Amino acid sequence: MSLIEFQAVSKSYPIYDSPSDRLKELLTFNRRKFHQDFWALRDVSFEVPRGQTFCIVGENGSGKSTLLQIVAGILHPTSGLAQINGRVSALLELGSGFNPEFTGRDNVYLNAAILGFSTAEIDRIYGKIEEFAEIGEFIHHPVNTYSSGMVVRLAFAVAIHVDPEILIVDEALAVGDIYFRQRCLRKVHELRARGTTILFVSHSAGDVKALGDRTMWLDRGRIRELGETDMVVAKYLAAMVEKDSAYLELKHRDPAPSAPRSQAPEVVDQIPNIDHRYGDGRAEILGIAVLDRFGRKLALLQPQSQIVVRISVRALEPVAMPNVGFMLRNHLGVDFAGTNSTREGFELPSMEAGDIYTVDFHLQLPEFYPGTFSFSPAIADGVLTSYRMCDWIDNAVTMQMGHGEGQIYGFVHLPCKVQLNACLGDGRLEAEAKLA
């Protein structure tokens, strides 16, 4: 059974050139139109079954917030059918649903009462809400005295403790501190495990890929892509990169005649896997290989070993500022680490059509947990703050990380030196030291 079902949902807002136009329209009983329609959503159709985490990505102004407000019951569609089958708890824009003149405690009781909780039921969950929010005595102060982070803490604490069947989380978490944000994401994972349906909106591709079962990309109110999260996020990020300014390409192009070009002495011409590929096609990845420090191909990654990631690229058109790199992802598809030639301070010469470069990245692997990791190579044109993606290959090489000597707690073991700084006791150690 789908808890959320949209069938050709559209939402428009009237835009008036002046307040008098609104009055004119009212005086004619809407028989004459003095406004223009702005369509925030157009023909949006999707379903979210029970227990699924459904993510929504898109630029600011793409219609994400309008869609969430329709799900929450705040707005009604102009046309189409929006059917919501379950109790909704929403964390939308900052402070929504809170009366700023009421105390935090009063707002907890007010919000829970709106969702149908009796006073006795709210009494039972109030202690958990107060504990999770961690705002101390401010819970008894008016909300208009809170910082933005404190508002989010209280709002999220209420949202997750009212036993929702559908939880809506908007980008509001972005204003929280790192500590509280991590607690929120852990709580979202707990709710997922309990079968709560989650609608999650974020500009963080890592969060979306870590949480989303399915993802929808909204673009100017319409669905651009809908499906498996890795595929949708990859296409969305590619489009955002392509939207970056390309003026630096002309700015940094050398008008002087270039010296004779030569092909790299060693070219990697194998790409073991291509999950998804995108770019403007002005240059291409020829191959990628993961080698040991002697240049031999590796079948298994070993913690604390030296490796070489070798990437060969070819220019099909002039590339003024080539930048070659790769992204390392873990088994969840989350971008774990990455680098590129520009980031490492190595400026590659400009490329003309037909030029082939082979770039080696020499790495000392830390002590990772024994999971599966993939390498995604790329070549771009431009500086780090403004570039055009020429070619990107998702998960071209996937390799297993072997076991190290010790236990890995979390994702990576940090090199650490341990020493005894001081010892407080009954004087025995001090006496032994004197005898020694």
In short:
Helices cover 25% and strands 32% of the residues. The protein has helices spanning 19-27, 64-72, 104-114, 119-133, 148-161, 178-193, 205-211, 229-242, 247-251, 428-435, and strands spanning 2-15, 36-49, 53-57, 79-84, 88-91, 166-169, 197-201, 214-219, 222-228, 277-278, 283-292, 306-315, 322-329, 335-340, 356-364, 367-368, 372-383, 386-393, 397-400, 412-413.
Notes on the structure:
This protein is of the alpha+beta class. It has 2 domains: 2-240, Rossmann fold, CATH 3.40.50.300; 247-254 and 262-413, abc- transporter (atp binding component) like domain (Coagulation Factor XIII, Chain A, domain 1), CATH 2.70.50.60. Helices cover 25% and strands 32% of the residues. It has 10 helices and 20 strands. The strands form 5 sheets. A 6-stranded mixed sheet has the order 5-6-7-3-8-9, with helices on both faces. Strands 10, 13, 14, 17, 18 and 19 form a 6-stranded antiparallel sheet that branches. Strands 2-1-4 form a 3-stranded antiparallel sheet. Helix 4 (119-133) packs across helix 5 (148-161). The chain is globular and about 75 Å long.
